[in-house]
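Pinned message: reference record for Dehydrogenase
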Amino acid sequence: MINFKIGIIGAGGIATGRHIPAFKEIEGVSVYGVFDVNHVRAKEVAATFSIEFVAESEEQLLRHVDAVVICTPNKFHHQSVMKALDAGKHVFCEKPMAIASHEAIEMEEAAKKAEKVLQIGYHYRFKKESLAAKKAIVAGSIGDPLVVRVEAMRRRKVPGWGVFTNKDIQGGGCLMDYGCHLLDLALWLMDYPEIELVEGQTYEMVSRDPDQVNEWGIYDATTIDVEDHATAFIKFKNGATMLFETSWAANVPSDKESLSISGTKGGISVFPYALNKAEQGIMTTTVADWISGEENEGLAQARHFISSCLEGREPLVKPNEAKIVTAVIEQIYQKSN
Ligand SMILES: NC(=O)c1ccc[n+]([C@@H]2O[C@H](COP(=O)([O-])OP(=O)(O)OC[C@H]3O[C@@H](n4cnc5c(N)ncnc54)[C@H](O)[C@@H]3O)[C@@H](O)[C@H]2O)c1
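Predicted structure (tokens):
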């Protein structure tokens, strides 16, 4: 029986809410140790989840495990990933891969050199709708993607906890922390075509309003320094284009996550799933038959990471793709004025 030992670095919300429960459910895997700069927090989490070892340092944790799951704020992903790969460990790193392109490039190179798995936490790819859409696109159902429309919109939901409103630590706001998921998903469905041009604009006026109305807690409107809305236009070398919009403080009637692609032979909507085609003179819409009995994307993502490590396979979310998300985000910030 395999005993594959996982170490958690950063024992905050995503570690306790998603990764520790998911990895604990996988047979042959133990969540063996935890490290957090907040040692009290690490001890509490270890007690709650019956984790054997509370490490004093990342280095100490690395000596005792086969792989680490990095759940620190975005700024620290790079340093922890580099240390873990250098120690010869497999790494699952939360999204975004890094806050700067040059860091993501170094991380990708380090994974290659170490010959270890480096999987990034773009878990939207493991949603049933996303997998069904990928399958249909790979089977040629929509032909070549032409126009991609993405809306990742939350109505007045700036995260009022943690460090999400601090640019220095998170690197950005709704685009860096939320829109990145749908940006990755859209690029993956398109098979990551080469990019010719990125234009974009970010906004932060709504969340700076001292009379804020926010549904996800309270943040300091005087210190928030990240964007709450971003738009982008991306043109690809193959002629396709993407129209992208994300916000976590939008003045819209309700939240909306939508991703649709018009191709040369058909079109696909991912959320909610529908495949549209003109067949025998009429337009048809097919809804995939995947509804029941499947595990959630957090567990699917964790299982995939473990099997990639054990079988020495490249993971579904590859460093060379996640680094492009970071590069696009960087360009949107650069183009914005
Ligand atoms: N995939 C998703 O949908 C999703 C959702 C939420 C958060 N995230 C990502 O997960 C990461 C963590 O987010 P969170 O919501 O858990 O934040 P959090 O603030 O709840 O937790 C972060 C934890 O990391 C610890 N920490 C800070 N610096 C550290 C360091 N250098 N070494 C070790 N521990 C350190 C903090 O003490 C804290 O306990 C971020 O990168 C975030 O973008 C992803």
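Pinned by admin. Summary line: The radius of gyration is 20 Å.
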